[in-house]
Write a structure and sequence with these properties.
Elements lengths: L8 H4 L5 H71 L8 H6 L1 H23 L67 E4 L4 E4 L14 H12 L5 H10 L6 H11 L4
Antiparallel strand pairs: 1-2
Length: about 270
């Protein structure tokens, strides 16, 4: 295809020298090629910029990962040093060489004192020493201060089953058993008869017995049981409530707490 065929339509309307026309066409083609090359260069530059941005992002992520890895490595190094110190380092009870030198003099004096004491003990042990009596193992006797309730078990007949003669007492076989009486609730029924004088019309009655809690129904024994169970046996109030409920005695925890407060001495 000739260059004149590639001229713009506007230029073909003019009658120009063929050489000039050929030059203009070549100039236009060169400009077009240059424009295409510029477009290609712009595309390459944009691609290079995108690649550089992607590389920068990758580099930034790699830097963050490297920093994270470095932090993990430092933590592992510290942990390894800690376990090495636990496994191989000197314990707190052990002395270093410098610390041993500080106590050498006192150790030597203490050692000589111990040797002298050992020699003295050996000399004393060579003499006749009375053996120490130890308590024999086995069942210990029951305390003597406890109340003894006697239960006598006599034979059905005081006559001999072989010959029919009267039996003669020759001794007793005594055995003891330890028993306990659980908390037993009972009521003090106070009766105060009232007497009147017909001549002077006066009424006489015995005074009301003194009580720890005025107007309360708790007797000293009940208050003592609550305080001892709470502060010496460490039983909570709900357990005391359950113990009373087994005997069909309603004692609420609030009532027991009030007993404790009112029976305690003022601070």
């Amino acid at each position: 295809m000739a260059l004149t065929d590639r001229l713009p339509l506007e230029l073909t309307q003019f009658e120009m020298n063929p050489a000039l026309t050929e030059w203009v066409a070549s100039l236009l083609q060169a400009n077009k090629d240059l424009l295409n090359q510029v477009k290609l260069d712009v595309i390459k530059i944009q691609q290079a910029e995108q690649k550089s941005q992607l590389d920068a992002t990758v580099i930034q992520q790699a830097a963050k990962q490297a920093k994270l890895d470095e932090t993990k490595i430092q933590a592992l190094i510290l942990e390894l040093a800690y376990y090495r110190r636990i496994r191989f380092a000197n314990k707190s009870e052990q002395f270093t060489a410098e610390q041993r030198e500080l106590f050498e003099e006192s150790w030597s004096s203490d050692t000589s004192a111990l040797d002298a004491e050992i020699e003295q003990s050996a000399a004393l042990s060579s003499a006749d020493v009375a053996p120490i009596k130890r308590k024999g193992a086995g069942r210990q006797p029951l305390p003597s201060h406890l109340l003894r309730i006697e239960h006598r078990h006599e034979p059905e007949s005081c006559t001999c089953g072989q010959c029919g003669k009267d039996l003669v007492k020759i001794g007793e076989d005594i055995t003891e058993q330890l028993d306990v009486e659980p908390a037993r609730f009972f009521v003090h029924h106070h009766i105060r008869p009232q007497y009147a004088c017909q001549s002077c019309e006066t009424i006489t009655a015995a005074p009301i017995p003194a009580a720890i809690i005025d107007g309360g129904m708790a007797a000293p024994g009940l208050l003592t049981w609550v305080m001892v169970s709470q502060f010496m046996d460490h039983l909570p109030l709900y357990r005391l409530e359950q113990i009373a409920a087994r005997s069909q005695v309603p004692l609420a925890r609030a009532t027991l707490a009030q007993y404790q407060f009112m029976a305690s001495p003022p601070l």
